[in-house]
Specification:
By secondary structure, this protein is mostly helical. The protein is about 75% helix and about 0% strand.
């Protein structure tokens, strides 16, 4: 078999995998990871059950691949663009604005993928929960790290608790996501942005660094 034929098959397989995972992340954001079945995904994606089974092998492998794909979207939508801003308060404000917009714009139909799937599997130990927890831990840790830079750089009051501030900011984001989904209340995003801004002002942030949350 020629290299050209092999490369062509690989390219088609990669394209099929991306197409299926795009549907899978959207489905899981609504129905949770337990609701992500090969049969349901086949019906949504237009791929056969056998082709999806060939691509992923098992439900757990499909779930793990879906989490990895959602994590890539999260990084590309929220984290990577925010790195254009300097470390510290300005980057934190941009991160939180992008997190709110990611939910408001329904990048996934069910709002934040990780909020939806965390509720689905938080009491079910195993590799799937571990993968969701790792993604969430990285997010919480990244926001806290930016806040520590802000404290160390004098942008926030000396002695400010970066982890506690991160907890509040992320809780506001997650509540806005939940309230928007449950009540159809998009004003929740503006209220959350205002509360985030006030939280950062309370610990000494310069208003000029918070324009993303204005």
């Amino acid at each position: 078999m020629s290299d050209q034929v092999v490369d062509g098959r690989r390219a088609r397989g990669d394209a099929s995998r991306r197409s299926v995972l795009s549907r899978a992340t959207d489905l899981a954001s609504v129905d949770g990871l337990d609701g992500l079945t090969i049969g349901r995904l086949a019906a949504m994606s237009g791929h056969s059950k056998s082709s999806i089974a060939t691509l992923f092998g098992s439900k757990q492998s499909l779930q793990l691949a879906t989490i990895a794909a959602a994590r890539q979207v999260f990084m590309a939508t929220i984290v990577e663009p925010s790195r254009d801003e300097p470390r510290g308060v300005r980057r934190v404000a941009t991160l939180m604005r992008r997190a709110l917009d990611y939910s408001r714009d329904r990048v996934f139909t069910g709002g934040c993928f990780f909020a939806a799937t965390s509720a689905d599997i938080d009491s079910k130990p195993g590799p799937v929960r571990d993968a969701v927890r790792a993604a969430q831990s990285d997010w919480y840790g990244y926001v806290a790290a930016q806040l520590r830079y802000a404290v160390e750089g004098g942008e926030l009051e000396e002695g400010s608790d970066a982890e506690a501030i991160a907890f509040v900011l992320i809780a506001l984001d997650e509540h806005a996501n939940s309230r928007s989904l449950l009540f159809g209340d998009d004003d929740a995003y503006d209220r959350a942005a205002g509360a985030m801004r006030q939280q950062l002002l309370t610990v000494g942030a310069d208003p000029e660094l918070l324009t993303a949350l204005a």
